[in-house]
Design a protein that fits this description.
169 residues, mainly alpha, two-stranded antiparallel ribbon, disordered C terminus
């Protein structure tokens, strides 16, 4: 269905967000593996650098805790609007109102809320089971929604989705 313009396409919640909860869990596991590999590589490089500088470079190891949030935030700012795990699972993050790509600030709020949710043992994430779009508390706080990339590309070129479905499918 279209209304008043070629790019305005009505998509149902089932088309946009159907099956995203299971995909989000798989994407989280994929991203966890990627972050763990990055962590091991950076830790090894920083320890070697610390030894070569006779210990003067070891304080740089204090930057490693910032790796996971930076990984998430910078991934969401990419043209995919998704972390690599989300992209592999055919998901992308969008503004809830108009399905446009998220702003840098909304992405930052989403990432911070995600890590607060993890710190609270994931309980705020259970909200996804009780709303139509499968939105967690950090999704709602940031004004974002996780959608299936295939639904947007099937409907036509919307935002930065390009054509042809998920980038790695």
């Amino acid at each position: 269905m279209t209304e008043s313009g070629p790019d305005f396409i009505w998509l149902s919640d089932a088309e946009l967000t159907g099956g995203t909860i299971g995909r989000r869990i798989a994407a989280f596991l994929i991203d966890g593996i990627i972050v763990a590999l990055l962590w091991v590589v950076l830790h090894t490089l920083l320890v070697v650098f610390g030894v070569l500088t006779l210990g003067l470079g070891l304080p740089l190891l204090g930057l490693l805790p910032f790796l996971p949030p930076l990984y998430n935030w910078l991934s969401l700012l990419s043209p995919l609007s998704a972390t690599p795990g989300q992209a592999v699972m055919g998901l992308m993050l969008r503004n809830n109102d108009d399905l446009s790509p998220p702003s840098g600030f909304a992405s930052l709020i989403w990432v911070l809320g995600f890590y607060v949710s993890l710190a609270l043992s994931g309980l705020p994430m259970l909200l996804a089971l009780f709303n139509a779009r499968g939105r967690t508390l950090h999704d709602i706080a940031a004004g974002l929604v996780v959608v299936r990339a295939q639904a947007l590309t099937r409907a036509g070129h919307i935002g930065n989705t390009g054509g042809g479905g998920a980038p790695f499918a």
